[in-house]
Request: fold
Amino acid sequence: MFSPKTHFEQVPLETVRKMMEEQTRQENAALDAQGRQKTILEEGSSSDTQELAMSFRAISHMEA
Reply:
């Protein structure tokens, strides 16, 4: 009898698709936050700094 050398579990395609969509969403959110940070730093606005801090907290909670 043939015994496979790999020991991977089969994962449903829909599960993998959901994982990839979530990862893509998190990466896009991080890129958006970086873009906002760059804009805020260029403008030097103090009111936007609070918004930036809130967005980074939101992203860090999503990744945790």
Observations:
- The chain has a mean pLDDT of 77.
- The CA atoms of residues 30 and 59 lie 7 Å apart.
- Residues 22-63 form one domain.
- The helical segments are 13-43, 46-63.
